[in-house]
Amino acid sequence: MKIGTLLFKCGLLPAALVFAVSVNAQQPAAKPSEGETKDPQKTLAPKRIKKVAKKGAESKEAAPPSLDDRLTDHRLAVRRGEQREPTSAFLIDEITVTGTYKSVEGYGAFLRAANNRTFFGYKGMQFYDGVILEIDPDQVVFQQNLPDGKKKQIVKSYDPNALRSATINEKEKAEREKKEKEKEKEKKVKKEEPKEKSDEGDHGDDDQ
Fold first, then answer.
1. DSSP secondary structure, 50-66, as one string
2. pLDDT tens over the chain, length 208 residues
3. CB neighbour list of residue 146: distance below 8 Å, 6 or more residues apart
4. pTM confidence score
5. How far are the Cα atoms of 1, 122, 183 from residue 119, in angstroms, in the given order?
């Protein structure tokens, strides 16, 4: 107490207090211990948002098996005793309507497949991707099952003029191919004739 009173009287006590405060201000703040909690707003890092690619529109629809594979599967199924429509191996797009007819049961259709096989079509006839919904005097209405589960109606009309022109084109093509084969045969014969003549000349020289 005497020393404090003496310092106060001499004016040294206020100066000592100011010096102590300045020293404490210059010292760095103490680090929190391991047990102390930290402010979550300062320590949490920002979350990264992952971009998810859309696959719906970009995914490609799976193509159906080839016609040969479908026909092979159809034959094997029939051998195993399964009952299948004769047209169940064909796609609707592979069928052409070549005519219609009327019977006691209603209208039917003449159908031709991609491999030139013909069928008598009727209402309810099954295909690989659909069925016949209706047969009218001049058209056949198909219902196609799409890969996404939806159904689509396809109308195939019967045009006698178009069928007649297609038949004429096929006949012209066959005649053209026949003429080309005949020309090739004539060329081969002409090439062989000079060889035969030269062989005959060689034999004549030998006889002399």
1. PPPPP-TTTSPPPPPPP
2. 555 554 444 454 455 554 554 545 455 555 555 555 555 555 555 566 555 545 544 445 678 899 999 999 999 999 999 988 999 999 999 999 999 999 888 899 999 999 989 999 999 999 999 999 999 988 999 999 998 889 999 999 876 665 565 566 566 777 778 888 888 877 777 776 665 555 555 555 555 5
3. 152
4. 0.50
5. 127, 9, 38
- In contact, 131 and 143? CB cutoff 8 Å: yes
**Angle value at C-alpha 80, between 75 and 85, nearest 5 degrees:** 50
Terminus-to-terminus CA distance in the chain, angstroms? Answer: 166
